[in-house]
Amino acid sequence: MARAVQAARRAAPAATNDPFTADVVAGLVAKPKSLPPKYFYDLAGSALFDRITQLPEYYPTRSEIGILQANAPAIASLFPQNCALVEFGGGTSRKARILLGAAATVEAYVPVDISGDFLQQDAAQLRRDFPRVEVYPLVEDFTKPFALPAAIAALPRVGFFPGSTVGNFEPHEACKFLRHAGTMLGDAALFVIGVDLVKDSKILYDAYNDAEGVTAKFNLNLLARINRELGANFNLGAFEHHAFYNTARNRIEMHLASTRRQKVRVNGATVDFRAGETIHTENSYKYTIDSFQALARGSGWTPLKVWTDGLFSVHALVNKTTEDR
Ligand code: TRP
Fold it and tell me: Does the CB atom of residue 60 touch ligand 1 within 6 A?
């Protein structure tokens, strides 16, 4: 190989066959800059998120658990006999346990999550707590097609998607996800989904701007992770957590704002920031009961029931049969 070519190869950014590297570089050279929220959840990020769910300002977790507890028998009464409960993103089974405790008809529980460590630990504890339930943890990206365990092939399925994670998708992606879940769960399947509601913007603002600054730490941990794992040199003191409610689009936006003009090196590339320029790290769309039911109808599901405490909602949807689609 000619020397000049070798030198050029060395000067170019390091190979980006690793999806984390490729996604980070692509997001930071894009205009406006953004980073995929799925990378929030390394070990430190997952621990911070766990703290977020316990914050006084962060009502969604408490609300959803309250709704599930208050209505567990009613929800369980919709489950078919001898069914399998498939949780999309079941990193911790805290909420699924409420349903498993109320639904004696569940034979198998299939938590599907991209991070395997928590899944395996949690599966062992679940088997002790619910000896009648077979637990089949799957380490998969639940937004993509994956094979369900052969052992549940013949069982009717109930999907579970708590945490208003559906709100972290763009509405068109949420529609795509709901259709994909319909294909995975099968005709006439039941789907139980937690969805955060549109409400007073002060309550929404505070939920993502807690006084203790845990949400800010969670957001900034993404840059810390990029430094740790990709050898980047983000100065964490020169970026700030910005979260606000975008009323026109019914969504909380989370950003990391550069407090000044600066350059950051990431994997051989130099990224320039203007003062005040932001990296958009996440959206959390809020729905009304009607707007979510309309989204569900447009995505191949029929709304069956909804439970709410006024802040959060839990929907039961039924998959339309293939002929009706
Ligand atoms: N899906 C939840 C929400 O949007 C949880 C969540 C995801 C979250 N990312 C977050 C909460 C960042 C606080 C900060 O509310």
Answer: yes
Strand partners, 306: 315
The per-residue pLDDT of the chain, averaged, comes to 92
Whole-prediction pTM: 0.91
Question: Could you give the C-alpha distances from 69 to 137, 292, 297, in angstroms and in order?
Answer: 24, 22, 26
Nearest-CA neighbor of 249 among 289, 215, 209, 198?
198
Show contacts of 241-250: CB within 8 Å, 24+ apart.
241/209, 241/213, 241/215, 241/216, 242/278, 243/205, 243/208, 243/209, 243/215, 243/219, 244/205, 245/201, 245/204, 245/205, 247/201, 249/285, 250/198, 250/285, 250/286, 250/287, 250/291
Q: Verify whether ligand 1 is closer than 6 Å to residue 165 (CB atom).
A: yes
Say how many Å lie between the first and final Cα of the chain, rounded: 57
Compute the distance from residue 227 Cα to the ligand 1 centre, in Å: 22
Looking from the CA of 51 toward its CB, the CA atoms found within 13 Å total 15
**35, 49, 53: residue to mutate for ligand 1 pocket, most atoms within 8 A of CB:** 49
Position with higher pLDDT, 162 vs 14 = 162
- Whether 93 is in the pocket of ligand 1, judged by its Cβ within 6 Å, is no
**CA 269 to centroid of ligand 1, rounded, Å:** 30
| Ligand 1 atom closest to the CA of 196, numbered from 1 | 15
Asked if the model's pLDDT at residue 238 lies above 60, the reply is yes
